[in-house]
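User: I'm preparing a small set of examples for a lab meeting where we compare how different chains pack in three dimensions. I only have the primary sequence for this one, and I'd like the structure in token form so I can line it up with the others. Please keep the answer compact; I'll paste it straight into my notes.
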Amino acid sequence: MNWYENPTIAAILGGVGGSVITAGVSMWIAKKTSQVRRVDCIINDASSLLSFSDTIRTKLEIKYSGEQASSVFLFNLEVFNSGNQAVGNQPCLIRLDDKAKIIGYSIKTQPAVGFGEISKSQSQHSLDLSIQLLNPGDRIYLQLISVNNASDRIDVYMKNANVICRSYTRQAAERAILGTLNKTVDPTLMLLAIIRSVPFFGGIAEPLMMIMLTERFEKALRERK
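Assistant: Understood. Below is the structure token output for the 225-residue chain.
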């Protein structure tokens, strides 16, 4: 009998090969998931504080600092560390349209106590924040009021070294989630779901499925941003 026909040797080689594959996949998963430095900004729907009919609006006189205001907008944003690593000196640069004038803003942090310093710089239609430290799960709630906006446009820029920075509207996030869930079943996901129920290999399949679903969501988010 040749050595490769021996069932004992075949079983040993199969076990060793399986262990090598498992170790390789585990290292790849660990590399993908162990250190994620990521900051997200969710832009909630802007609210016009003058959303009346044209007939009523023409009869209203709203002034700020002695000047009549053509519009008043309220913006709500959330900035948070969605990764598992601390992020330092995170910029958050907010821009409204050129005609807008920011007249006030408020910032709340979660946690409320022990949060890092937030530096602020404001001009007519822009607000720049620099967040000293964002630990995983730390969150900032920002409300901003402006007048004379030509539209409800708001842009947020958060580029930082070695940090994944994403800004998107809440509607875009909801559509991306629904789009990911409504897609036809991926054969790869089906195969991983089957492998997940197999002893020994199930522990590998589950994190792979999570990575695939996360990448799909991020791709859908970029497309619907």
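A couple of notes for your slides: The chain is about 35% helix and 35% strand. Confidence is low (pLDDT under 50) at residues 8-30.

User: Perfect, thanks.
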